[in-house]
Every structure is written in structure tokens, then in C-alpha cells.
Amino acid sequence: MDFSLEDPSGLKLQFPVNPSEVNIRRDKSFETITIIRGGELDVPQGVKVKEIAFSSFFPANYDASYCQYEPLPDPQTAMNQLNTWMESQDPLRLRITGTQVNVLVMLSAHNSSFRGGEPGDVYFDVTFRTWNDYKVRTLDERLGSPGGESRPDIKPLPATYKVKPGDSLWAIAKMNLGSGSRWREIYEANRGIIGDNPDLIQPDQELVMPG
């Protein structure tokens, strides 16, 4: 069994001494809602990011009874590399051979310590959080224009809108354009129908909606 980290540039660090155990933590996220006279209610929100943690050490000298390979990395150089990766924004590839752990992670925390009688050895604890890629899509992609992904939850804007009793330009803009503050766009496009007072719209008027 080998434990290794690799960054996007191909730089790889293999841990020379296998940890005695690996802890993998999975949590479910909840939002707590307080109901009047009903107490608290936990509403599940999804699975949180998974955490993987283990402890080991970088030995200063090779010992075949516990070292996985040689030559060994310099302990302080190895710890400095972990520091650099923790400050980086790029994910790392964590592999543990013989298991299903082969995932992208971010190094979220690590501690180091020295022990008397073991000069040069550096002990450490590391914690990783699994990393999920995300993509910021353009408006064209969201609306499903050529070359973009379709978004079935986004409705195309209607070409016209028939005024209903009780409607206002603000409410029409909110419902059809996503923001009530866009009421003036509707008014300017339909000034000839509405007249000089934007507050006086009449049921059954056919309003042209802005593109």
C-alpha cells in the first residue's frame, strides 16, 4: 500500500511511512428551522464535503522495517512542500493503492511535531477535503444559445403580455423579467398604449415585452 500526493504540474510526494490508520469522515448537512409551537425541524440539505485524515512521519534515516522506499525525501523539504500545497488554490491527487481512494483533494490542515531522541524526524497530521469542480456559465450558456447548455428551468421571455386585473408594471416586470425594477423598460416599450401615467394600465391591454 502506497500513499502519495501529486499536483497538476506532476510533482509527486510519496509518504515514506504508511499511516497506521486512515479516517474518512462523511457528514450530511441540515438546516434547522424553528416552527412556532412545534419546536425545531432539521431539513436535509445534502452531503457535505468528505474529509480524509491520517498521521505519519518523515524519517531522517532509512529503516527497511517501516520505510516504503529509498532514497527518502528530506523531512523538512517534504513539510515545506505540504505548506506550499496548502496555500495553493489547485487541487491535489491523493492516491492510496489497494483502496478506492484516488480522488482530487485540497489540503485543508496539517500539523507537525518533533520528538526527543529522534533527531531529524518530523511527525505530522494531515487533513484533506475532497474537491469538486465548478463552472461559472455565461448567460448564453444558461439560456441555451448555440454552443451552450440548455436550461429547462429558465423560461423564454414572452413576446407580449396581456394585462390582468390588479396588475402593475412592477409586478409584470418581476414575474416576466426577473426584477421589478425593470418596469420602466416595459413602460417605454408601450408608452403609446399605456399613456403618460405608467400607473394606469388597463386589463386586456396587450403589452410588448422587452427582449
Describe this structure in words.
It is built from five helices and eleven strands, in the order ββββββαβββαβαααβ. It is 18% helix and 32% strand. The protein has a seven-stranded antiparallel β-sheet with strand order 2-1-7-8-9-6-3. Strands 4-5 form a two-stranded antiparallel ribbon. The protein has a two-stranded antiparallel ribbon with strand order 10-11. It has helices spanning 75-87, 139-143, 169-177, 183-189, 191-194, and strands spanning 3-6, 12-14, 22-25, 28-35, 39-47, 51-58, 92-96, 102-113, 122-130, 160-162, 206-208. The chain folds into two domains: 3-130, Elongation Factor Tu (Ef-tu), domain 3 (Beta Barrel), CATH 2.40.30; 152-208, Membrane-bound Lytic Murein Transglycosylase D, Chain A (Roll), CATH 3.10.350. The model is unreliable at 148-155 (pLDDT under 50). It is α+β, with helices and mostly antiparallel strands.
